[in-house]
Amino acid sequence: MNSLREALAEYLELRRGLGFKLQDAGRQLPHFVAYLEQQGWRAAPRRASRRRPSRSMTSLRPSR
Known about the structure:
Number of strands: 2
Distance between the termini: 31 Å
Number of domains: 1
Strand order of the largest sheet: 1-2
């Protein structure tokens, strides 16, 4: 299991490496991770990193 911050850093690095700018998500997601940590989350479940993001998360995806 990765810490949430490690998982976020890997996610942002991967997406930016694919050409996405992620300016808004790069600012918003660390706040979301901080919230999850405050709620007691400490690690991202292994299976979560392998699933595709939900379509309901469109506000967190960059627009093209």
